[in-house]
Write a structure and sequence with these properties.
This protein is mainly alpha-helical. Helices cover 72% and strands 0% of the residues. The protein starts with a helix and ends with a helix. GO terms for molecular function: succinate:fumarate antiporter activity.
């Protein structure tokens, strides 16, 4: 049930927030200062490529979020069950943190990396005329990457993605439960159903810490995923550590947090939307299950 609730929340999030993700990707790939900020980037894309360009990569993004949240919520629930106290049935803060990290690592390796490689390759293309674009769509993009770079090309940037998602999810699940208890006196599994606005506030607050802590991993992930061996060229970045050192040397320390503002504009609202949907489904299921189990 938690896997299903996560997938439905992911569909809603992707539909609402795709333009912010496109802007974030363009800013992170901008090494020459073409974009002056979020508004300038969005306006430039709309003016030069059309408004539809702000939804580039929506298909892989929506599919990726649906599968990612399904795996994240489901695996986190399974992992938490291993950390439950056999007498009280409660999960400690330490167990919740490790469960979140494990769920983040699983989603990064199995789902996030290949889908984000395709999404970023599509998003970095300028223009809308199909005949001028190298990649014609997500399936064509995946096929070309495999043909030109091998199957492992779909897992470019997997190391920083694992670090980013593991850290993000360990913080997010721990913070979400803490805010539910602190703000609404809601304990997981107590049968109560929070109002959607309450879930959205908790989800929004829980989604703010991750982007700040994992900004460098996200920038490095994007740079590694965007580069290709087209024409047999040499890759600029050799790996996660080399990319961090190169970006720092060439662009300065703050470049490792490029795209942070659009990430903060996308991730906390995205978590608010996802939890607003997921908590309703989970809460109604828990209440029905608990009611039936007491009959």
């Amino acid at each position: 049930m938690k896997a299903i609730s996560g997938s439905l929340g992911g569909i809603m999030e992707a539909s609402c927030l795709q333009p912010i993700d496109v802007i974030k990707t363009r800013l992170q790939l901008d090494r020459s200062g073409n974009y002056k900020g979020i508004l300038h980037c969005g306006a430039t894309i709309s003016r030069t490529e059309g408004v539809r360009a702000l939804w580039k990569g929506l298909t892989p993004f929506a599919t990726h979020l649906t599968l990612k949240y399904s795996l994240r919520m489901g695996s986190n629930a399974v992992l938490q069950s291993a950390f439950k106290d056999p007498e009280t049935g409660k999960v400690s803060g330490h167990g919740r943190f490790l469960s979140g990290f494990g769920a983040g690592v699983l989603e990064a390796v199995i789902i996030v990396t290949p889908f984000e490689v395709v999404k970023i390759r599509l998003q970095q293309q300028r223009g809308l005329s199909p005949e001028l674009l190298k990649y014609k769509g997500p399936v064509n993009c995946a096929r070309m990457i495999i043909r030109e770079e091998g199957f492992c090309g779909l897992w470019a940037g997997v190391a920083p993605t694992v670090m980013r998602n593991g850290t993000n999810q360990s913080a997010m699940f721990t913070a979400k439960n803490a805010f539910d208890v602190l703000l609404w006196k809601k304990d997981e599994g107590d049968g109560r159903v929070l109002q959607p606005w309450q879930s959205m506030i908790s989800g929004f607050l829980a989604g703010t810490a991750g982007p700040i802590c994992t900004g460098p991993f996200d920038v490095v992930k994007t740079r590694l995923m965007a580069q290709s061996r087209e024409g047999g060229g040499v890759l600029k970045y050799k790996g996660m550590i080399h990319a961090i050192r190169t970006i720092y040397a060439e662009e300065g320390l703050l470049a490792l947090w490029k795209g942070l503002l659009p990430r903060l504009m996308r991730i906390p609202p995205g978590q608010a939307i996802m939890w607003g949907v997921a908590d309703q489904i989970i809460g109604l299921y828990e209440r029905r299950y608990l009611q039936l189990s007491t009959l």
